[in-house]
Write a structure and sequence with these properties.
Blueprint: E1 5-15, E2 20-29, E3 38-43, E4 47-53, E5 56-57, E6 60-62, E7 71-76, E8 83-89, E9 97-100, E10 112-115, E11 136-143, E12 149-152, E13 155-156, E14 165-174, E15 181-184, E16 187-190, E17 195-199, H1 204-210, H2 214-225, E18 233-237, E19 246-247, E20 252-255, H3 268-275, E21 283-285, H4 291-310, H5 312-333, H6 357-374, H7 376-389, E22 393-395, H8 397-407, H9 413-417, H10 421-425, H11 440-453, H12 459-462, H13 467-476, H14 483-492, H15 501-513, H16 520-527, H17 533-545, H18 547-560, H19 566-576
Parallel strand pairs: 1-11, 17-18, 18-20, 21-22
Antiparallel strand pairs: 1-2, 2-8, 3-7, 4-5, 4-8, 6-7, 9-10, 10-15, 11-14, 12-15, 13-14, 16-17, 19-20
Bound molecules: ligand BES and zinc ion.
C-alpha cells in the first residue's frame, strides 16, 4: 500500500536576490511507516540538502528526470516514521514560480514573485505529492525582505509583531496544484465581510471597484450549489505578465490585470474562478484526463451565476462566444480528432496539454444539454447533491457517469433515453443535438455586419454595445477586410482607441488577418504589456501566418519575451524564439 501525506508544514525563504526559495517541508504521513517502506514525492530541478525523520537522516534517491514529470524523489522509511522533513532549495528557472523585477510590475517599485501550480508545476518549488488524486492540509511560513507582503491561498495566521514573516494555515485538504503564494508590494481593500482584493497600490482601488459584485456572486452560487466551504474569498490581481485569465487558488483567486476594464464587463472571470470553489476545488478531477470535470462544470456554473446576477441575455451572449471559440478549436483539431473527446488522453504528453476549448465549452454544452432535458429544478438539485456528497474528494469521468445514471437518469427515464453520455464523452466533435445559445443582442450585431457589408453606416447602432457585443462583432466579420473598411472601423467606430483587453485582442487580430498597414506601434504596445496566453497566442499566430508580419512578430517577441511567463515562452519559442 502506497503511503500518502495528509498534512504539510513548510517554511521557506523567498530569496529575491537569487530567485530561489530555500527551506524545508515536512510531510505528515497518514500512518506510521513499516520498515523499508518508500515514500515518493515529485520534484523538478530541486536541490535536496537533507531528509530526516526527527533527528535521523533518511536515505533517498532521485529518479532520472524527464521533461514531463521531472523526477520522483524516493525516500526510504524506517519502522514508525510519521514525519519526513525535506531540506531543499529551488532553482531560478523553476517553472512554477515567476520572479519579476520592479520594472515588470504595475507599480515599478518592488520585485514580485508568484506561483502557478496547475497542472504539475508546484513540484518545481515544493517537493510534494503533485497529483490531483492526493489532498493534504498545510501550515506554511514565508520569509520575505523588509517592506514586502506575502500572501497565500490559505487562512492568514500572521502575527503583527513578526516582521517579514507570514504564516498561513489551510484547514481543508487540497490537491497540491492548489497551493499558491505571491509576494510583492501588495495592499488590501475589503469589499464585504468575507471578500476583498489584494493588488499593487496603484491598481487596488480600481480592482475593488471592478470586483464589487463578488459578494453577490458568492450568494448566487451558494443559493444554487450549497454553502461556500472555504471561509474567505479574496482576489489577487497580478502584474501584467500573469499568463492566465484567472487561477482558482482556494480562498484567493489569482487574476490577470486585463480584467480591470473599468466597466465591470469582464467579471465573468470572477464568477468562473469562484465557481471552482465547488467544481474543481471541492470535487477535483482525479487525473488530468478528467479535466473537463473541473472546467466544463465550472463554465456551466459560471454562466448560471452570470445569468442570476446580470440576466439571461448576458449569459447567452457569453455562451454564444464560447460556442464560436469551440467551433474554431474543433476546426483546428480537424474532424474526428481524439483530442475533441471530453475524456482526455494525455498518454505521454504534458498535462498542460489538456487545456483547450474542448473541456471548457464542450463540457459546458453537455451539462446544459442535461439541464435542458431534465429541467432546471432536477438538474440543480443533482449538482448540489453531487458537490455535497463528493466534497473534498476526487472524481473521474467513469465514476461521474455511474453517479449520473444513478442519481439523475433514474428520475426521468424519458429524458434519460434522449441522452447518450458516450456520444459526448468518448467521441469526437459535437453531437448534433448540442444546445444553442439564443442572444437577441447578437442577432442585431449580425444584422449590423450585413449592413456594414452593404456599405451602410452602423456607428449609431454600436453606441451602446457592451464588450461582448464588440467581441462577437469582430469575431464574425469576414476577413480579410479592405484597408478602407478597417480605417473606418478604427476611426468612426472608435476601435483604434478601445482599451478593453478582450476587444483589443480581437481587433488587432482582425487587423493582422486583413493585412492592415501602420499597426506596428499598437501591436508593439499591446504585445509588450499583456502576458495573458489567451490574448498573445492568437495575435502572434495571425502575425506568423502572414509573411509581411513575420519579421515584426520576431522583433516584438524578442523585446517582450523577458516579461512573459515560461508557459507562454514554451508555446511561442517554437515559432518565434
Ligand atoms: N484552472 C484554470 C486555469 C488553468 C488551466 C491553469 C489549465 C493551468 C492549466 C482557470 O480556472 C481558467 O479556466 N482560467 C481561464 C479563464 C476563465 C474565465 C475561462 C483563463 O485563464 O483563460
Ligand atoms: Zn477554470
Amino acid at each position: 500500500m502506497a503511503l500518502n501525506a495528509t498534512h504539510l508544514r513548510f517554511d521557506l525563504v523567498l530569496d529575491f536576490g537569487e530567485h530561489i526559495v530555500r527551506g524545508w517541508v515536512e510531510h505528515e504521513l497518514e500512518r506510521a511507516a513499516k520498515d523499508d517502506e518508500t515514500f515518493v514525492v515529485q520534484t523538478r530541478g530541486l536541490d535536496i540538502e537533507a531528509i530526516r525523520s526527527g533527528h535521523d537522516s533518511r536515505e533517498f534517491e532521485m529518479a532520472e528526470p524527464n521533461p514531463i514529470d521531472g523526477s520522483d524523489l524516493r525516500i526510504r522509511l524506517r519502522q514508525g516514521d510519521r514525519h519526513i522533513k525535506i531540506e531543499y532549495r529551488s532553482r531560478p528557472d523553476a517553472w512554477g514560480l515567476q520572479w519579476l523585477s520592479p520594472g515588470q510590475t504595475a507599480g515599478g517599485k518592488q520585485p514580485f514573485v508568484y506561483s502557478q501550480g496547475e497542472t504539475n508545476h508546484n513540484r518545481s518549488w515544493l517537493p510534494c505529492q503533485d497529483d490531483p488524486a492526493f489532498r493534504a492540509t498545510f501550515d506554511a511560513t514565508l520569509r520575505v525582505p523588509a517592506g514586502m507582503r506575502a500572501v497565500m491561498a490559505a487562512e492568514d495566521r500572521s502575527s503583527a509583531t513578526e516582521e517579514r514573516v507570514f504564516r498561513y494555515h489551510m484547514p481543508q485538504p487540497v490537491p497540491a496544484y492548489l497551493i499558491a503564494l505571491a509576494a510583492g508590494d501588495l495592499r488590501f481593500r475589503p469589499m464585504s465581510e468575507r471578500t476583498g482584493v489584494w493588488a499593487e497600490p496603484n491598481v487596488v482601488d480600481l480592482a475593488a471597484w471592478e470586483f464589487a459584485d463578488t459578494e453577490a456572486m458568492m450568494q448566487a452560487t451558494e443559493e444554487l450549489y450549497g454553502p461556500y466551504r472555504w471561509g474567505r474569498y479574496d482576489l489577487l490581481v497580478l502584474p501584467p505578465s500573469f499568463p492566465l485569465g484567472g487561477m482558482e487558488n482556494p480562498r484567493l483567486t489569482f487574476a490577470t490585470p486585463t480584467v480591470l476594464a473599468g466597466d465591470r464587463s469582464l467579471v465573468s472571470l470572477v464568477a468562473h474562478e469562484l465557481a471552482h470553489s465547488w467544481s474543481g476545488n471541492l470535487v477535483t478531477n482525479a487525473t488530468w484526463d478528467d479535466f473537463w470535470l473541473n472546467e466544463g462544470f465550472t463554465v456551466y456554473l459560471e454562466r448560471r451565476v452570470i445569468e442570476a446576477i446580470f440576466g439571461r441575455e448576458r449569459s447567452e451572449m457569453e455562451a454564444s462566444i464560447g460556442r464560436s471559440r469551440l467551433q474554431a478549436e474543433l476546426a483546428r483539431l480537424g474532424e474526428g480528432s481524439r483530442d475533441s473527446w471530453l475524456k482526455g488522453k494525455l498518454a505521454g504528453r504534458a498535462p498542460d496539454d489538456s487545456f483547450s476549448e474542448i473541456p471548457y465549452e464542450k463540457g459546458y454544452l453537455f451539462l446544459r444539454h442535461l439541464e435542458e432535458n431534465f429541467g432546471r429544478k432536477r438538474f440543480d438539485e443533482f449538482l448540489r447533491a453531487y458537490f455535497d456528497r463528493h466534497a473534498f474528494e476526487t472524481m473521474d469521468t467513469e465514476r461521474f457517469v455511474v453517479y449520473l445514471r444513478e442519481e439523475l437518469f433514474s428520475l426521468d427515464t424519458g429524458a434519460a433515453a434522449r441522452i447518450d453520455p458516450d456520444a459526448w464523452i468518448y467521441a469526437p466533435d459535437l453531437p448534433p443535438e448540442a444546445p444553442r445559445a439564443q442572444s437577441t443582442a447578437f442577432a442585431s450585431v449580425e444584422a449590423c455586419i450585413v449592413r456594414l457589408r452593404e456599405g451602410a453606416d452602423i456607428a449609431s447602432a454600436t453606441n451602446a454595445w457592451c464588450s461582448q457585443e464588440w467581441v462577437f462583432f469582430l469575431r464574425h466579420l469576414p476577413r480579410p477586410l479592405e484597408a478602407s473598411t478597417l480605417s473606418a472601423l478604427g476611426e468612426t467606430l472608435g476601435l483604434d482607441a478601445k482599451t478593453n483587453a478582450d476587444i483589443r485582442c480581437e481587433w488587432l487580430r482582425l487587423c493582422v488577418e486583413s493585412g492592415r498597414g501602420g499597426i506596428e506601434e499598437p501591436l508593439r504596445a499591446y504585445l509588450g504589456s499583456v502576458g495573458r496566453k489567451r490574448f498573445l497566442q492568437p495575435i502572434y499566430d495571425a502575425m506568423w501566418a502572414r509573411e509581411e508580419f513575420r519579421f515584426l512578430a520576431r522583433e516584438i517577441y524578442a523585446m517582450a519575451r523577458p516579461m512573459y511567463h515560461v508557459f507562454v515562452r514554451k508555446i511561442l519559442d517554437e515559432k518565434l524564439g
